Amino acid sequence: MAIIVAGPAGAVADRWAVIGESSAITMSVRALGVTQTGRFGRWTGDIRFDPDAPEDAEVAITVRAASLTMRQAAVTQRAVGPGFLDADRYPTIRFQLRELEPTAPGRYTARADVTVRDRTRPVTFPVTLSVDGGTARMRGGFVLDRADYGIGTQGAMNALVARQVRVDVALATRRAS
Length: 177
Known about the structure:
This protein is 5% helix and 57% strand. It is mainly beta. The protein has an eight-stranded antiparallel barrel. Strand 9 (107-116) and strand 10 form a beta hairpin. It is elongated and about 50 Å long.
């Protein structure tokens, strides 16, 4: 049974489930002269969406900070450790969509709040959205300034890691039954 909620404009929104094998949350940052990339392996999404009124979508994503995996184990340990994400003290990263503004067919400007290390900051970024029957796909990405979240601002590594962190999201969802 789908959970039905009324969106801001009164549209009826069904609950959509993430298709894990077709979805990803990744990040990249320049460090030590090379681009370091990683992928978050554990996260959940609460998505309520009406294909006829996507601007009324309600999306909340919760990511387990410790699930970040980088190419090298030592880089992963540093990234989730106390100097950066500090996953033991701040186990979750949260994304809350505030607005989805249409800009062209299948294209939108998303406005959301991102919370890392208990610090919430707004982000605005372009997304694409396509719906094919009971499957919806969204792609988008944004850049965070790690200093805004108190990430890696102390110690020698601060000067060796770029402040700009790119986050890319590819969500595939299907209507929940």
